[in-house]
Amino acid sequence: MLLLTLFFPLFAYATGLININTADKVTLMELEGIGDTLANRIIEYRETNGPFSAVEELIHPNIERLYKSTFDKIKDHITVGDTSAPDIPDSTVSSTPSTTISTTDAVATPPSSSGKPPEYIPIPTLRLVTGGDRIVSSGADTPFTAVVYDNKGNKRDDAFVTWAFGDGMKRTGASVLHAYRAPGEYVAVVHASTPDGGEEIALIAVMVKSARVSIASVAADGISLENTDARTLDLSFWRLVAGGREFKIPADTKILAGRTILFPALVTGLSAADSAALLYPSGEVAALFPAIAPIEEQPSLGTVSYTKVSEVEPIQSARTDIQTYEDAVGAPAAATNLAAAGAALSPEPPPSRISLIFKSPWALGFLGVLILAGGAFIFL
Fold this sequence. Notes:
Blueprint: H1 2-15, E1 18-19, H2 25-28, H3 36-49, H4 68-74, E2 78-79, H5 90-95, H6 99-106, E3 127-129, E4 134-137, E5 141-145, E6 147-149, E7 160-164, E8 170-172, E9 175-179, E10 184-193, E11 199-209, E12 213-219, E13 222-227, E14 233-234, E15 239-242, E16 245-248, E17 254-255, E18 260-264, H7 265-268, E19 276-279, E20 285-289, H8 301-311, H9 318-344, H10 353-359, H11 361-379
Parallel strand pairs: 1-2, 4-11
Antiparallel strand pairs: 3-6, 5-9, 7-8, 7-10, 10-11, 12-13, 13-18, 14-17, 15-16, 15-19, 19-20
Protein backbone atom coordinates (compact mmCIF):
# COMPACT_ATOMS: atom_id res chain seq x y z
CA MET A 1 0.00 0.00 0.00
CA LEU A 2 2.85 2.33 0.76
CA LEU A 3 4.38 1.73 -2.66
CA LEU A 4 0.99 2.26 -4.35
CA THR A 5 0.58 5.51 -2.47
CA LEU A 6 3.98 6.72 -3.64
CA PHE A 7 3.61 5.76 -7.33
CA PHE A 8 -0.10 6.63 -7.88
CA PRO A 9 0.48 10.42 -8.32
CA LEU A 10 3.15 9.73 -10.95
CA PHE A 11 0.79 7.32 -12.74
CA ALA A 12 -2.09 9.81 -12.63
CA TYR A 13 0.13 12.60 -13.93
CA ALA A 14 1.33 10.46 -16.87
CA THR A 15 -2.20 9.52 -17.87
CA GLY A 16 -3.44 13.10 -17.38
CA LEU A 17 -1.44 14.60 -20.30
CA ILE A 18 -3.55 16.43 -22.91
CA ASN A 19 -2.97 15.30 -26.49
CA ILE A 20 -2.91 18.53 -28.51
CA ASN A 21 -3.60 16.51 -31.69
CA THR A 22 -6.91 15.12 -30.47
CA ALA A 23 -8.09 17.42 -27.69
CA ASP A 24 -11.18 19.52 -28.34
CA LYS A 25 -11.57 23.17 -27.57
CA VAL A 26 -12.86 22.68 -24.02
CA THR A 27 -10.03 20.33 -23.14
CA LEU A 28 -7.37 22.68 -24.52
CA MET A 29 -8.80 25.53 -22.47
CA GLU A 30 -8.04 23.54 -19.31
CA LEU A 31 -4.35 24.32 -19.87
CA GLU A 32 -2.96 27.34 -18.07
CA GLY A 33 -2.82 30.41 -20.29
CA ILE A 34 -4.92 28.84 -23.11
CA GLY A 35 -8.12 30.72 -23.70
CA ASP A 36 -10.84 30.66 -26.36
CA THR A 37 -8.73 32.40 -29.03
CA LEU A 38 -5.60 30.25 -28.59
CA ALA A 39 -7.64 27.04 -28.49
CA ASN A 40 -9.27 27.94 -31.81
CA ARG A 41 -5.90 28.76 -33.38
CA ILE A 42 -4.37 25.44 -32.24
CA ILE A 43 -7.28 23.49 -33.73
CA GLU A 44 -7.18 25.54 -36.96
CA TYR A 45 -3.43 25.02 -37.30
CA ARG A 46 -3.57 21.21 -36.99
CA GLU A 47 -6.56 20.98 -39.37
CA THR A 48 -4.68 23.00 -41.97
CA ASN A 49 -1.15 21.61 -41.56
CA GLY A 50 -1.75 18.18 -40.08
CA PRO A 51 -1.06 16.79 -36.60
CA PHE A 52 1.71 18.23 -34.45
CA SER A 53 4.85 16.11 -34.55
CA ALA A 54 6.29 17.73 -31.41
CA VAL A 55 4.90 19.90 -28.65
CA GLU A 56 7.47 22.58 -29.56
CA GLU A 57 5.47 23.30 -32.73
CA LEU A 58 3.02 25.23 -30.60
CA ILE A 59 5.53 28.07 -30.67
CA HIS A 60 4.76 28.83 -34.32
CA PRO A 61 4.25 32.23 -35.98
CA ASN A 62 0.80 31.15 -37.19
CA ILE A 63 -0.32 30.55 -33.62
CA GLU A 64 -0.34 34.13 -32.45
CA ARG A 65 -0.21 35.17 -28.78
CA LEU A 66 1.17 31.81 -27.60
CA TYR A 67 4.34 33.12 -26.04
CA LYS A 68 7.25 31.01 -24.80
CA SER A 69 6.38 31.86 -21.23
CA THR A 70 2.97 30.27 -21.72
CA PHE A 71 4.50 27.25 -23.45
CA ASP A 72 6.89 26.69 -20.55
CA LYS A 73 3.90 26.46 -18.22
CA ILE A 74 2.05 23.83 -20.27
CA LYS A 75 4.83 21.82 -21.93
CA ASP A 76 4.88 19.27 -19.12
CA HIS A 77 1.12 18.79 -19.36
CA ILE A 78 0.72 18.15 -23.10
CA THR A 79 1.67 15.43 -25.54
CA VAL A 80 1.37 14.76 -29.28
CA GLY A 81 0.76 11.03 -28.87
CA ASP A 82 2.63 8.29 -30.69
CA THR A 83 3.57 9.73 -34.10
CA SER A 84 6.74 7.69 -34.68
CA ALA A 85 6.82 4.70 -37.03
CA PRO A 86 8.81 1.55 -36.41
CA ASP A 87 11.76 0.77 -38.65
CA ILE A 88 10.29 -1.81 -41.01
CA PRO A 89 11.97 -2.98 -44.25
CA ASP A 90 10.53 -1.69 -47.47
CA SER A 91 9.50 -5.14 -48.61
CA THR A 92 7.48 -5.65 -45.48
CA VAL A 93 5.85 -2.31 -45.81
CA SER A 94 4.85 -2.88 -49.41
CA SER A 95 3.48 -6.35 -48.83
CA THR A 96 1.70 -5.99 -45.49
CA PRO A 97 1.09 -2.36 -44.62
CA SER A 98 0.19 -1.78 -41.02
CA THR A 99 -2.05 0.75 -39.37
CA THR A 100 0.97 2.55 -37.90
CA ILE A 101 2.51 3.03 -41.32
CA SER A 102 -0.78 4.38 -42.72
CA THR A 103 -0.94 6.91 -39.90
CA THR A 104 2.60 8.03 -40.63
CA ASP A 105 1.84 8.46 -44.36
CA ALA A 106 -1.17 10.64 -43.54
CA VAL A 107 0.91 13.08 -41.52
CA ALA A 108 1.56 16.13 -43.65
CA THR A 109 4.52 18.43 -43.16
CA PRO A 110 3.46 22.01 -42.67
CA PRO A 111 4.09 24.00 -45.88
CA SER A 112 5.95 26.64 -43.91
CA SER A 113 8.53 24.09 -42.65
CA SER A 114 9.47 23.06 -46.19
CA GLY A 115 11.04 26.45 -46.89
CA LYS A 116 9.37 26.79 -50.30
CA PRO A 117 7.99 30.22 -51.25
CA PRO A 118 4.21 30.51 -51.54
CA GLU A 119 2.72 29.92 -54.96
CA TYR A 120 0.97 32.79 -56.71
CA ILE A 121 -1.69 32.38 -59.38
CA PRO A 122 -0.82 34.67 -62.31
CA ILE A 123 -3.42 37.16 -63.53
CA PRO A 124 -4.61 36.07 -66.99
CA THR A 125 -4.30 38.20 -70.09
CA LEU A 126 -7.65 38.47 -71.87
CA ARG A 127 -8.42 38.74 -75.56
CA LEU A 128 -11.69 40.14 -76.94
CA VAL A 129 -13.26 39.11 -80.24
CA THR A 130 -15.92 41.68 -81.19
CA GLY A 131 -16.18 41.58 -84.98
CA GLY A 132 -14.36 44.88 -85.45
CA ASP A 133 -15.56 48.16 -86.95
CA ARG A 134 -18.89 48.20 -88.79
CA ILE A 135 -21.50 50.21 -90.67
CA VAL A 136 -25.06 50.04 -89.33
CA SER A 137 -28.42 51.62 -90.12
CA SER A 138 -29.92 54.28 -87.90
CA GLY A 139 -33.03 53.15 -86.06
CA ALA A 140 -32.26 49.45 -86.47
CA ASP A 141 -31.40 47.16 -83.57
CA THR A 142 -27.88 45.88 -84.24
CA PRO A 143 -26.36 42.87 -82.41
CA PHE A 144 -23.06 43.46 -80.60
CA THR A 145 -21.20 40.36 -79.38
CA ALA A 146 -17.94 39.96 -77.45
CA VAL A 147 -16.21 36.59 -76.95
CA VAL A 148 -13.56 36.53 -74.19
CA TYR A 149 -10.49 34.26 -74.20
CA ASP A 150 -7.55 34.07 -71.79
CA ASN A 151 -3.87 33.68 -72.68
CA LYS A 152 -4.21 29.88 -72.54
CA GLY A 153 -6.90 29.89 -75.23
CA ASN A 154 -9.73 29.09 -72.85
CA LYS A 155 -13.09 30.71 -73.52
CA ARG A 156 -14.08 32.70 -70.45
CA ASP A 157 -17.84 32.47 -70.15
CA ASP A 158 -17.53 33.80 -66.60
CA ALA A 159 -16.37 37.21 -67.84
CA PHE A 160 -18.41 40.28 -66.95
CA VAL A 161 -18.92 42.38 -70.11
CA THR A 162 -20.21 45.96 -70.33
CA TRP A 163 -20.82 48.17 -73.38
CA ALA A 164 -20.76 51.97 -73.78
CA PHE A 165 -22.06 52.87 -77.25
CA GLY A 166 -21.01 56.52 -77.38
CA ASP A 167 -24.55 57.91 -77.60
CA GLY A 168 -25.26 57.86 -73.87
CA MET A 169 -26.52 54.27 -73.77
CA LYS A 170 -24.86 51.46 -71.74
CA ARG A 171 -25.67 47.74 -71.69
CA THR A 172 -24.40 44.66 -69.88
CA GLY A 173 -23.82 41.21 -71.34
CA ALA A 174 -21.62 39.35 -73.81
CA SER A 175 -24.33 39.65 -76.51
CA VAL A 176 -26.61 42.71 -76.65
CA LEU A 177 -28.76 44.69 -79.10
CA HIS A 178 -28.49 48.44 -79.61
CA ALA A 179 -30.09 50.93 -82.01
CA TYR A 180 -28.48 54.26 -82.91
CA ARG A 181 -31.20 56.87 -83.47
CA ALA A 182 -29.25 59.38 -85.59
CA PRO A 183 -26.61 59.02 -88.32
CA GLY A 184 -23.03 59.82 -87.34
CA GLU A 185 -19.70 58.32 -86.34
CA TYR A 186 -19.59 56.69 -82.90
CA VAL A 187 -17.10 54.74 -80.79
CA ALA A 188 -18.41 51.72 -78.86
CA VAL A 189 -16.25 50.69 -75.88
CA VAL A 190 -16.49 47.11 -74.58
CA HIS A 191 -14.97 46.22 -71.19
CA ALA A 192 -14.45 42.65 -69.96
CA SER A 193 -13.26 41.43 -66.54
CA THR A 194 -12.91 37.97 -64.95
CA PRO A 195 -13.12 36.86 -61.30
CA ASP A 196 -9.38 36.02 -61.24
CA GLY A 197 -8.34 39.60 -62.03
CA GLY A 198 -8.22 39.58 -65.83
CA GLU A 199 -9.30 42.77 -67.59
CA GLU A 200 -9.39 44.02 -71.17
CA ILE A 201 -10.93 46.92 -73.15
CA ALA A 202 -11.65 47.13 -76.90
CA LEU A 203 -12.86 50.00 -79.10
CA ILE A 204 -15.20 49.63 -82.07
CA ALA A 205 -15.74 52.37 -84.66
CA VAL A 206 -19.42 52.44 -85.68
CA MET A 207 -20.55 54.36 -88.76
CA VAL A 208 -24.31 54.97 -88.60
CA LYS A 209 -26.12 55.79 -91.87
CA SER A 210 -29.73 56.22 -92.89
CA ALA A 211 -31.19 53.11 -94.50
CA ARG A 212 -32.06 53.75 -98.15
CA VAL A 213 -34.64 51.06 -98.68
CA SER A 214 -38.11 51.19 -100.22
CA ILE A 215 -41.02 48.88 -100.91
CA ALA A 216 -40.89 48.39 -104.67
CA SER A 217 -44.17 46.50 -105.05
CA VAL A 218 -46.93 44.72 -103.17
CA ALA A 219 -48.57 41.92 -105.15
CA ALA A 220 -50.24 38.57 -104.69
CA ASP A 221 -46.92 36.74 -104.94
CA GLY A 222 -45.26 38.80 -102.21
CA ILE A 223 -43.60 42.07 -101.23
CA SER A 224 -40.48 43.35 -103.01
CA LEU A 225 -37.89 45.50 -101.24
CA GLU A 226 -35.29 47.62 -103.04
CA ASN A 227 -31.94 48.66 -101.57
CA THR A 228 -31.00 51.97 -103.20
CA ASP A 229 -27.90 52.42 -101.05
CA ALA A 230 -24.30 51.77 -102.12
CA ARG A 231 -23.78 49.27 -99.28
CA THR A 232 -25.23 45.92 -98.33
CA LEU A 233 -28.19 46.40 -96.03
CA ASP A 234 -28.79 44.16 -93.02
CA LEU A 235 -32.51 43.55 -92.40
CA SER A 236 -32.13 41.33 -89.33
CA PHE A 237 -35.24 41.51 -87.13
CA TRP A 238 -36.96 44.15 -89.31
CA ARG A 239 -40.71 43.66 -89.84
CA LEU A 240 -43.09 43.66 -92.78
CA VAL A 241 -46.70 44.67 -92.14
CA ALA A 242 -49.58 44.24 -94.61
CA GLY A 243 -53.27 43.42 -94.37
CA GLY A 244 -53.25 43.67 -90.59
CA ARG A 245 -50.58 40.96 -90.22
CA GLU A 246 -46.85 41.13 -89.46
CA PHE A 247 -43.78 39.14 -90.52
CA LYS A 248 -40.49 39.34 -88.60
CA ILE A 249 -37.49 39.11 -90.91
CA PRO A 250 -35.01 36.54 -89.51
CA ALA A 251 -31.42 37.33 -88.52
CA ASP A 252 -28.67 37.63 -91.14
CA THR A 253 -31.07 38.64 -93.91
CA LYS A 254 -29.21 41.06 -96.21
CA ILE A 255 -29.85 42.93 -99.47
CA LEU A 256 -26.97 43.70 -101.77
CA ALA A 257 -26.41 47.29 -102.88
CA GLY A 258 -28.76 48.36 -105.68
CA ARG A 259 -30.69 45.08 -105.65
CA THR A 260 -34.36 44.15 -105.25
CA ILE A 261 -35.50 40.99 -103.46
CA LEU A 262 -38.91 39.37 -103.10
CA PHE A 263 -40.34 38.15 -99.82
CA PRO A 264 -42.84 35.52 -101.06
CA ALA A 265 -46.33 35.45 -99.62
CA LEU A 266 -45.92 31.71 -99.03
CA VAL A 267 -43.05 32.48 -96.64
CA THR A 268 -44.33 35.63 -94.95
CA GLY A 269 -48.00 34.71 -94.81
CA LEU A 270 -48.89 38.29 -95.83
CA SER A 271 -51.74 38.65 -98.30
CA ALA A 272 -51.88 41.26 -101.02
CA ALA A 273 -53.09 44.62 -99.78
CA ASP A 274 -53.38 48.19 -100.98
CA SER A 275 -50.71 49.32 -98.51
CA ALA A 276 -47.72 47.89 -96.66
CA ALA A 277 -45.01 49.07 -94.28
CA LEU A 278 -41.44 48.13 -93.49
CA LEU A 279 -40.58 48.70 -89.83
CA TYR A 280 -37.30 48.86 -87.97
CA PRO A 281 -36.88 46.33 -85.13
CA SER A 282 -37.74 49.16 -82.75
CA GLY A 283 -41.14 49.59 -84.46
CA GLU A 284 -40.40 52.86 -86.26
CA VAL A 285 -41.39 53.17 -89.91
CA ALA A 286 -38.58 52.68 -92.44
CA ALA A 287 -40.63 52.63 -95.66
CA LEU A 288 -44.29 52.80 -96.77
CA PHE A 289 -46.21 51.61 -99.81
CA PRO A 290 -47.43 53.53 -101.65
CA ALA A 291 -44.62 55.96 -100.91
CA ILE A 292 -45.61 59.41 -99.69
CA ALA A 293 -44.30 62.09 -102.07
CA PRO A 294 -42.32 64.79 -100.31
CA ILE A 295 -44.04 68.19 -100.10
CA GLU A 296 -42.31 70.81 -102.25
CA GLU A 297 -41.05 73.76 -100.33
CA GLN A 298 -43.02 76.93 -101.12
CA PRO A 299 -41.37 80.39 -100.98
CA SER A 300 -42.45 82.43 -97.99
CA LEU A 301 -44.59 85.57 -98.39
CA GLY A 302 -41.88 87.69 -96.87
CA THR A 303 -39.44 86.82 -99.63
CA VAL A 304 -41.95 87.56 -102.42
CA SER A 305 -42.94 90.91 -100.90
CA TYR A 306 -39.30 91.97 -100.59
CA THR A 307 -38.60 91.18 -104.23
CA LYS A 308 -41.58 93.23 -105.53
CA VAL A 309 -40.76 96.25 -103.42
CA SER A 310 -37.12 96.29 -104.55
CA GLU A 311 -38.14 96.28 -108.22
CA VAL A 312 -40.62 99.24 -107.99
CA GLU A 313 -39.11 102.76 -108.00
CA PRO A 314 -40.48 105.11 -105.32
CA ILE A 315 -42.76 107.93 -106.65
CA GLN A 316 -41.90 110.46 -103.97
CA SER A 317 -38.60 111.38 -102.46
CA ALA A 318 -37.54 110.16 -99.08
CA ARG A 319 -38.12 113.56 -97.54
CA THR A 320 -41.64 113.76 -98.96
CA ASP A 321 -42.41 110.27 -97.70
CA ILE A 322 -41.22 111.13 -94.22
CA GLN A 323 -43.20 114.39 -94.13
CA THR A 324 -46.27 112.66 -95.41
CA TYR A 325 -45.85 109.96 -92.81
CA GLU A 326 -45.52 112.50 -90.02
CA ASP A 327 -48.59 114.43 -91.21
CA ALA A 328 -50.57 111.27 -91.48
CA VAL A 329 -49.57 110.16 -88.03
CA GLY A 330 -49.53 113.55 -86.29
CA ALA A 331 -52.82 114.97 -87.58
CA PRO A 332 -55.08 112.30 -86.13
CA ALA A 333 -53.12 112.46 -82.89
CA ALA A 334 -53.54 116.24 -82.58
CA ALA A 335 -57.23 116.05 -83.37
CA THR A 336 -57.67 113.38 -80.80
CA ASN A 337 -55.82 115.39 -78.14
CA LEU A 338 -57.94 118.52 -78.82
CA ALA A 339 -61.13 116.58 -78.68
CA ALA A 340 -60.10 115.02 -75.39
CA ALA A 341 -59.14 118.38 -73.92
CA GLY A 342 -62.42 119.98 -75.03
CA ALA A 343 -64.38 117.13 -73.51
CA ALA A 344 -62.55 117.38 -70.21
CA LEU A 345 -62.74 121.24 -69.68
CA SER A 346 -65.92 123.36 -69.48
CA PRO A 347 -66.19 126.41 -71.90
CA GLU A 348 -64.85 129.78 -70.48
CA PRO A 349 -66.80 133.14 -70.85
CA PRO A 350 -65.38 135.73 -73.28
CA PRO A 351 -63.08 138.41 -71.64
CA SER A 352 -64.49 142.01 -70.93
CA ARG A 353 -63.08 145.27 -72.39
CA ILE A 354 -61.69 146.43 -69.01
CA SER A 355 -59.69 143.23 -68.59
CA LEU A 356 -58.38 143.68 -72.12
CA ILE A 357 -57.24 147.30 -71.31
CA PHE A 358 -55.32 146.20 -68.22
CA LYS A 359 -53.71 143.37 -70.19
CA SER A 360 -52.42 145.82 -72.88
CA PRO A 361 -48.78 147.01 -72.38
CA TRP A 362 -49.62 150.57 -73.67
CA ALA A 363 -52.36 151.03 -71.11
CA LEU A 364 -50.15 149.82 -68.30
CA GLY A 365 -47.38 152.28 -69.38
CA PHE A 366 -49.72 155.25 -69.49
CA LEU A 367 -51.01 154.50 -66.01
CA GLY A 368 -47.46 154.32 -64.70
CA VAL A 369 -46.67 157.83 -66.06
CA LEU A 370 -49.79 159.26 -64.42
CA ILE A 371 -48.87 157.75 -61.08
CA LEU A 372 -45.35 159.22 -61.21
CA ALA A 373 -46.61 162.71 -62.17
CA GLY A 374 -49.14 162.70 -59.34
CA GLY A 375 -46.55 161.70 -56.84
CA ALA A 376 -44.16 164.46 -57.93
CA PHE A 377 -46.92 167.10 -57.72
CA ILE A 378 -47.77 166.11 -54.16
CA PHE A 379 -44.13 166.11 -53.13
CA LEU A 380 -43.52 169.60 -54.53
